[in-house]
Amino acid sequence: MIEITAELECPLMNSEFNGRPGQAAQSEAAFWRSLEELFPLFEREGIALNPEAHPDDFREENTAAVGLVRAIDKPWVNYLYRAPHTFHLPGADPTADIAAMTRYAGDKPHHAHIADTFDHKGSPGLRYILNPPGTPARIRRHPDIGQGEIDWAAFFDTLRELKFDGVATACVFAWDERARDSSAFMPERISKELPAS
Question: Which residues lie below 8 Å from residue 66, measured CB to CB, with a gap of 6+?
């Protein structure tokens, strides 16, 4: 993948903290082994890497993921904040303070994936009913801005406050029948909120 990225003259790759939360120590050890092997390739090709906290990976929470990115301690390794995972990022904490999580990441977010979502912890956790009870499934959605419960004023205000100048990507895939409408609406809204400097 690194070689293909280089052939395409793309300066950036995104990734997740793959592995399982129930095997976090083993997954993190494998992650570090992979990085040690891949660091020379990234550096040789001049490609940056933005990993993200992702539901059901060994790093699902914002604080832990940002801490791991900082521990990597490479200027070309930064963080991808995926807005539709906002309600998973604080872990067991019932609040999802998007501004606080973004500020905690500081200068590390170099990519933002943007779509709305619902708070699966709301009503207290009864918005989605999963069987069997206790299943470890992770629930999220990716509709257009304004079709969920993310505090978009806080999100965009904080990115502007932090002088975010990274990549902003619409990542809507909720309604196939609205694909054209979403593809027109999302870039227009993102450009309005995060004008190019």
Answer: 79, 104, 105, 106, 108
Distance CA 84, CA 30 (A): 27
Name residue 141's amino acid: R
Residue closest to 82 by CA, chosen among 167, 187, 184: 167
**Per-chain mean pLDDT for the chain:** 92
Distance separating alpha carbons of residues 140 and 113, to the nearest angstrom: 14
58 lies in which domain range?
A: 2-193
The mean pLDDT value for 162-179 works out to 92
Q: 178: closest CA among 115, 112, 120, 88?
A: 115
* Whole-structure pTM value: 0.90
Share of the chain above pLDDT 90, in %: 77
pLDDT value at 197 more than 70 = no
- Cα separation, 170 vs 187, in Å, equals 7
Number of domains in the chain: 1
Give residue-wise pLDDT tens across range 130-154: 777 777 777 778 899 999 999 999 9
Q: Read off the CATH number of the domain in which 9 is found.
A: 3.20.20.150
Contacts for 58 with CB less than 8 Å, ≥ 6 apart: 17, 18, 19, 20, 21, 23, 24, 27, 28, 31
